[in-house]
Amino acid sequence: MSEQIRALGLLSGGLDSTLAARVMQAQNVEVLGLHFSTGFCLADRHRILGNRSNPDKPYRNEALRAGADLKIPIEIIDIKDEYLPEVVLNPKFGYGSGMNPCIDCRIFMLQKTREIMEERGYHFVFTGEVLGQRPMSQRRPPLDDVAEESGLGRLLLRPLSARLLPESIPEERGWVDREKLFNISGRSRKKQMELANHFKIIDYPQPAGGCCSLPDENYARKLRDFLAHRGTDVTPDDMMLLKVGRHFRLSGDVKMVVSRDQGENTYLERFTQGRSEVWVDDFPSPLTLVEGQPTAIDLETACRITARYSDGRHERTVPVRWRSGESEGQLTVVPCQNDTELEALRI
Q: Which of 2, 101, 133, 296 could form a cystine bridge with 91, CB 3.0-4.6 A?
């Protein structure tokens, strides 16, 4: 075939998408990797605040790393503004275990990819999806739904499971050889790791259920609370703030966010506009932000909880500073020691 076949691939940088791209390369397909930034990736937090579980490990964008390893170009496409209202808040196919609209997410990204395919003259699209790997989005019916709803239909190829699925247009037209594709299924990554060894792919993140915050129970609980009290008047910055600190609901419209380390202190300083600030001067202390219009009781509670998480937590009383707009003051409080009280307020 004289014409150079060109394909777009969704590339997260995880093992499956990296392998899918490598399999396409092995069939002499020219590959462009697309990486969509939704605002809900766990790596966004690591990029801004560092990796709490491994502080010595520097942040890296896995999609860019995979692209460099495979020597293929990667385009990062920011879809935050559209993704939140169109996908997260209104999923046609519902949510998974948390607030994760996995099927709608895949459809949305592939619709964007189809548009690029048509605009730039690419032949087809591929993904690293594996039949049966994820209970919500990678069973056969949702795989079919994704192909149909995205408008790609049979122009969507899943190289790792292709021989378990109906023949796609790239296979039918000889753009790729079906016999050189794979029949991987299920949740085990054993076959993928064997394939990675075959292709000498050694640097990839260990499979751990993806990089999205939305399936996380703690994040989903905070997001539900946010939507219940603020409705859909939400911004990407609001969503990022949900990833940071300890969150407590003091009353119907009043919530406080308490940082967990100096990195979060620095980050929360970005969000002080329109929020009250609480901190302790005499001891190393978290920065606390209070949203809404706190009453005197709410403010005292915020000061007591802030003192609890400061280095003055064992003192009988602690002077706590607060600032709200042009007003500023100090309350001397007994640090909160009642875990039951804390848990009742924690989101």
A: 101
